[in-house]
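Hey, does this match?
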Amino acid sequence: MAYNGNEFIGPEAITFYLKKQSDGTYSGGEFQLKKSNNNNLLVSTINLNNPVNKCGIEKNAAKQTGPVTIFFLGFLGGLLALFTPCVFPMIPLTVSFFTKKTDKSKGIRNAILYGLFIFLIYIGLSIPFHIIGNVNKEIYNNISTNIYLNLTFFIVFIVFAISFFGYFEIALPSRVVNKADS
């Protein structure tokens, strides 16, 4: 709120009444006003040591959590993520892929490597932000919310969906198929 010499100017009009006290000060509701030397009214300033509202923040209100708690909550969140509709149907496919191998120990080794490399990929993507200080911390957010990238993925997924419904077939070149089979 501002005072232009004649009136208070603010975003909204507030009606309030002032009573002049015997000592020359004014009082009225939440406002404590007094006269200045040049006959203008002075609004008392904000007292940061005694706020009107604490906004729910008090000293020691934030609970300190250690790295073990953070790790446990992250692990629990990962386990809960297994039950999301995108991931849960993939569990039997992944398990059967590794267990259908003829050599059981090779299947277990491949499954462990599969999980380990997923872990290492996520760790590897986050390392630059821990080592290099001037890397833009929002780069992955900027990439994932980029309109052109999202439209490109949208078109690719629509093409794959139409192919999945049988309107056309997407096939690898025979040279690539033969090399993958050998």
